[in-house]
Design a protein that fits this description.
The complex is a heterodimer of chains A (271) and B (205).
Chain A: H1 2-21, H2 26-37, H3 45-57, E1 88-90, E2 95-97, H4 99-111, H5 115-120, H6 131-141, H7 155-169, H8 179-183, E3 189-190, E4 193-194, H9 203-209, E5 214-216, E6 221-223, H10 225-235, H11 246-258, E7 268-270
Parallel strand pairs in A: 5-7
Antiparallel strand pairs in A: 1-2, 3-4, 5-6
Helix pairs in contact in A: 3-6, 7-11
Chain B: H1 6-14, H2 30-40, H3 56-63, H4 70-81, H5 96-103, H6 145-148, H7 153-164, H8 186-197
The chains are: A mainly alpha (271), B mainly alpha (205).
Chain lengths: 271, 205
């Protein structure tokens, strides 16, 4: 008991001293906060997962069909591990598609949903849920604990990767920015916000891509990669990129490839 | 605003871009890439005509991943230098306090912003006032910028020119060409130059 008390004292004192001597490491504090919040019982992103699960099996649209016949690459209705291999080539459309493009395709062709409404609600807002954000959270969560592994074998997948890479470095518009302006060097930051290096394969890309979709505390919404890229271009002072456009999927494929081998833990929670 | 001319398109289409790519990396030609970009931004938002560009300099910097061969470097530098317009009266120093405000302001210019005076957002990338701790590291520290240059008038003019068009100094610089694109007004650039060069500015304290 006495030993325990002494140990407890020294730990307490030690911590106190360390705090007094060093500035608080903001990133470490944030990490603690993230760990606290990543508990499925307290991460609001799991509400999207639950809603997405309902939407997946609900019969809807003019064809009164569910999404259970939707092939996300692993076969109709197969969800486990599907997200980890997206974007990929789909023979029925002849296109490389990310999860959101593929879901839109199934909603339109199999369910006959009003796509204008789906796209209007592509990003959730207070009082307006997004079917896309809910479904992406649900489906991506089925790849949690798995590793990214895009096939990149079809010529169109190879082309999409190359386009994504070129777009990553493509400087344009009002500010001469490209993705590479902020994400092509190690250990840089904007103001106090750390910037992941995404032009090479490795831990930054793995940590970044492995944690999308994510619940954004600052926006009180669960966001997808389509939204992340939309917001990047917004901050770059570019015009609004078209939702589900080929270029966004190409960029996503480029980023997922850099994150290959990285573990997926989603929905995560971020600032 | 320069628009990418047809001849540049033809030139860009003539070679396969991406000289720094590894041997086994798949490649894509410039024409195909521009088709994809066009589909990402199919129409120019109203009032944005002057903001949308993919000019010769942007194209060559993208192509070479900002690492230009000497001949291209010299060409870009000369072309960008020719765009710089110094204030007509030759005075590049405005109000450093206004400059301080713009340096700290990151609002304006996004597709969700209402029309407003754009902030210069210098602190996003540069350290300036040493007591402002929230600064980025994409650009070099500017602490003591004017003091280190002995407040020399020709150095102040060079700083104004660099804010106006960074690529006239360093082709393919990460820094936006604030004056060239009209993102900042002449008065804002003068105020920012004063923020760097006034002995009373916290940058030099």
């Amino acid at each position: 008991m006495r030993v325990f008390m002494a140990l407890a004292m020294s730990i307490t004192l030690g911590t106190g001293l360390a705090n007094a001597q060093q500035p608080v490491d903001t990133e470490k504090e944030l990490e603690k906060y993230r760990q606290m919040m990543s508990d499925p019982m307290s991460n609001p992103g799991f509400l999207n997962v639950d809603r997405g699960e309902v939407l997946w099996s609900q019969k809807r649209g003019s064809k009164n069909a569910s999404l259970e016949g939707c092939d996300l690459g692993e076969g109709p209705g197969k969800l486990e591990g599907a997200f980890a291999k997206l974007p990929r080539f789909f023979g029925d459309t002849g296109k490389v598609m990310d999860l959101e493009q593929r879901l839109a395709h199934c909603m339109e062709t199999q369910q006959g949903l009003d796509m204008a409404d789906i796209i209007r609600r592509r990003f959730g807002a207070p009082g307006r849920t997004s079917d896309m954000e809910d479904l992406v959270a649900f489906i991506a969560n089925k790849s949690s604990g798995m590793k990214y592994s895009v096939p990149l074998s079809h010529p169109k997948e190879k082309e999409a990767f190359a386009i994504g890479q070129e777009l990553f470095f493509r400087r344009s518009d009002f500010m001469d920015f490209s993705c590479a302006t902020c994400h092509a060097e190690e250990g840089k930051r904007i103001r106090l916000q750390g910037l992941p290096q995404l032009n090479k394969a490795g831990k930054d890309a793995q940590a970044t891509m492995g944690s999308w979709p994510t619940y954004r505390v600052s926006q009180s919404q669960t966001r997808t990669m389509q939204h992340r890229l939309w917001d990047c271009y917004r901050q770059m002072r570019s015009p609004e990129p078209v939702y589900l456009s080929e270029g966004l999927t190409a960029l996503t494929l480029y980023l997922v490839k850099q994150a290959e081998g990285g573990e997926i833990q989603v929905p995560s929670i971020k600032r | 605003m320069k628009k990418l001319s047809i001849s540049v398109f033809a030139l860009a289409g003539a070679f396969i871009i991406g000289p720094t790519q590894a041997q086994d990396t798949p490649k894509v030609d410039a024409k195909r890439l521009e088709e994809v970009a066009k589909a990402m931004w199919p129409k120019t938002p109203e009032g944005w005509e002057k903001r949308i560009s993919y000019d010769e300099t942007q194209a060559i910097c993208s192509q070479y991943r900002n690492d230009l061969p000497q001949a291209e470097f010299d060409k870009v530098k000369a072309r960008e230098l020719a765009t710089i317009k110094l204030p007509a009266d030759g005075n590049v120093l405005g109000d450093w306090k206004a400059g301080q405000r713009f340096a700290n302001d990151g609002r304006g210019g996004t597709f969700t912003d209402r029309p407003m005076t754009n902030g210069a957002n210098c602190y996003a990338c540069h350290q300036m006032d040493r007591f402002e701790l929230s600064y980025g590291t994409l650009g070099p520290s500017l602490v003591n910028y004017g003091k280190d240059r002995k407040y020399a008038p020709e150095e102040a003019k060079a700083a104004y020119a660099k804010i106006y068009n960074s690529m006239a100094v360093m082709p393919c610089s990460t820094m936006p060409r604030f004056g060239y694109h009209g993102f900042l007004t002449e008065q804002q650039m003068k105020d920012l130059t004063a923020f760097l060069f006034d002995p009373e500015s916290p940058v030099n304290k």
